[in-house]
From TrEMBL:
Keywords for this protein: Iron, Iron-sulfur, Metal-binding
Domain 4Fe-4S ferredoxin-type: 59-88
Stored Gene3D superfamilies: 3.30.70.20
UniProt-recorded Gene Ontology molecular function terms: iron-sulfur cluster binding; metal ion binding
InterPro entries xrefs: 4Fe4S_Fe-S-bd, 4Fe4S_Fe_S_CS
Source organism, top-level taxon: Bacteria
Record keyword Iron present: yes
Signal sequence, renumbered to the chain: none
Protein name: 4Fe-4S ferredoxin iron-sulfur binding domain-containing protein
Amino acid sequence: MLAQNGIPTPEDIAEVLPPAERLAKGPVAIAECFQNIPCDPCYHSCKQGAIKEFTDINQRPQIDFDKCNGCGSCMSRCPGLAIFVVDATFSEQEALVKIPYEFLPIPQVGETVTAINRAGQAVGEARVVKVQNSKVQDRTAVVWLAVAKDLMMEVRHFKTKEVR
């Protein structure tokens, strides 16, 4: 239970996931923000208008999945690192998961990392496809991971194999 251990329940997660039809169309953002807190930078950063306007600064973000193109501009603006982009169309066997990352060392393209789920458990391996880390992102890199398709909705973090 989220309030006791910080891990969202399957019901919590189901509330924020895009429908299967939308996942089949390409990259889309998922806001796994499960608490009502005063925060709205994601709304202001979305140039597509995909994050619905907040009626109360404390409400959780709501994504209009039909407007979202998966650009990820909201990811590096989220102070809680709670927004991810998934792309089920990346390849036949793999999906792409874009993860906000604020640790060092930043992984290198081509590196194999350990894929971690929401509970902090290793669930497999992932390959680093791309790393975005510009000044506009304010020191929040976005790491693109290729993962097995069945892990697309599980992988929400990673750890590097070794410290450089």
